[in-house]
Every structure is written in structure tokens, then in C-alpha cells.
TrEMBL record:
This is DUF7900 domain-containing protein. PANTHER family: ZINC ION-BINDING PROTEIN. The keyword Coiled coil applies. It comes from Arabis nemorensis. Residues 63-90 form a coiled coil. Residues 54-92 form the DUF7900 domain. Residues 1-22 are annotated as: Disordered. It holds the Pfam family DUF7900. InterPro entries: DUF7900. Transmembrane segments: none annotated.
């Protein structure tokens, strides 16, 4: 990752090293040091560093993997936010469930009444034809 190599050379960043209290070991089984990098984009970002490893060693691969995971998560968050917006738009016209239930009840009563009226009208028409 070219950015990590340039961080220590950049005039707009600074590095602070400290001993690792967590006991994280490098791939070479040496205790790593925590390096805190201060940049405009990542103020106070902490990295583990090994004095024996080159800048493009396993730390570089770990950073690349972390970057890829963060990109995937950002994309997933973006998709989920869009889904929430879509669902919110879809539910804007939805009424209160109890009001919908009452409306359906009333519609059912009206349908039931209409069907009986239609049945009665049909019977009446049949009676007129026989005469």
C-alpha cells in the first residue's frame, strides 16, 4: 500500500511509537510496537509495527485486507440505507392497521349487502319472467 509507506515521509503527518501493552506478536514472534499515525484522514490511527519487518511485509498485507473489508462494509451499509429509504417510501401511503381493518370490515359488509340485494333482484327478475 503506497499510502502507508508515504505516511512517515509526509510533511502533514507524524508518528508516535509506544510499547505494546497487549502482547500482540509479529509473524516473527517478536513483540510489536504500536505506531500512532496522525494524518488529515486518519488522526490517531494505530498500527502494529515490527522493527525487523520491512514496510511492505505482513503489515502491508494486513492493512490491505482491512481496507478491503472496510470497503465491503461501506458498500453493504450503503445498500442497507438505500433499502431502508425504499421501504420508508413504500410505507408512506400505508394507513394505520386498525383503520385498514375497519375499512375492510365495512367493505365486507357492503359486499355482503350488495350480494343479497343482487340475489333478491335476480329472484325478482325470475319471478317476473314466469308471469
Amino acid at each position: 500500500m503506497a499510502q502507508s509507506a508515504s505516511l512517515s515521509q509526509s510533511a502533514s503527518s507524524s508518528n508516535i511509537e509506544s510499547n505494546n501493552e497487549n502482547g500482540v506478536l509479529c509473524n516473527c514472534n517478536r513483540t510489536t510496537k504500536i505506531v500512532r499515525v496522525w494524518t488529515k484522514d486518519n488522526p490517531g490511527r494505530r498500527f502494529y509495527g515490527c522493527p525487523d519487518q520491512k514496510p511492505n511485509g505482513w503489515q502491508h498485507l494486513a492493512l490491505v485486507e482491512a481496507r478491503d473489508i472496510m470497503r465491503e462494509q461501506k458498500e453493504e451499509i450503503k445498500n442497507l440505507k438505500e433499502e431502508v429509504r425504499k421501504l420508508s417510501r413504500d410505507t408512506e401511503g400505508v394507513q394505520d392497521p386498525t383503520a385498514v381493518k375497519e375499512e375492510l370490515k365495512q367493505t365486507g359488509k357492503n359486499w355482503h349487502l350488495d350480494s343479497w340485494l343482487g340475489y333478491g333482484s335476480s329472484i325478482n327478475n325470475l319471478g317476473d319472467q314466469e308471469l
